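Closing statement on the 4'-deoxy-4'-aminopyridoxal-5'-phosphate sub-project.
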Amino acid sequence: MFNFQKISNLYIWQNNRFMPLKEKHINVFSHSLHYSGAVFEGIRVYKGKPFKQLEHYERFKKSAELIGYHIDYSSEFLCKITEQLININSIKSGYVRPIAWRGPEDWHVSGGNCKINVAILVYNPFYDEKPNRALKLNVAQWKKIPSECVPYDSKSSGLYMMSTIMKNEALSRSFDDSIILDQNNCITEATTSNFFVIAGEEIYTPALSCFLNGITRQTVINDIAPMLNKRVHEKEMQLTDLVNANAAFLTGTASGIVRIQSIYDDNSKTQFSFNIENNLLRNLQTTYKNFVLQHDLSKTSTLQSQI
Ligand code: PMP
């Protein structure tokens, strides 16, 4: 459970100023609160270092552009601010939440004259995380909106309304999360993470369609699987394909690689169960853990002079 007391002493950075979190309140007239349109990121901090933060800040800026506004700060500048916030708040293991939103200046739905606010928070929401858990999922009753209808490459608050509904429905039925299908009944992703299966010695993930191409998904495809001499096959997948899967897992910045124990489909009354001790899955998890701990900051550490 999120504990506000534990974060109320933090320093945040907002609109080019470091300040105590408790000093800041958001104007209730803020455009993004009414019409959505905030964009945000989640970056994981391991041993005091942010993992792949440059990639996250580049996605952050692209998310804003895709929904019609521009973040003036460079990704490199935001990386440096993040490193400073991690130090100021003495965070060793934690999470970074950059967010940008339209302010209260323009009440038209376009919000074209709103000021763009940018804030970064660094905190540790992982203090009660269970080690290497295995998830029980269901199949959501809601389907994904087709990709012609919304910009899935934008990590924008508007797209998260459905994740919130589906996650709450899953939790109320004692599942941990939901797998979401598209209009053609193809598997897409879970509410806040990407989906993979292992069949024999092969790794599969849904081909990109109406979901976020997560940075952890890309890390598994481009870094982790090749380290194990594997290639991830990106292909359309239906629930019936899960019969052939030995193991399954989710990927996301917050939790890394998380094992799936089972997926229950209400429509066919079928439960798909997976081997949570699968060797290849264990190797992927170990390789990912080592990779994030060894990842270096050199890409951003020469940029001090730009601040
Ligand atoms: N899909 C959705 C909808 C998400 O919110 C996230 C978390 N950002 C992911 C996938 C995984 O993305 P990443 O690996 O970049 O955290």
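Helices lie at 4-7, 31-35, 53-66, 75-88, 160-172, 215-227, 279-294, 298-301. With this model delivered, the sub-project is considered complete and its resources will be redirected to Aim 3.
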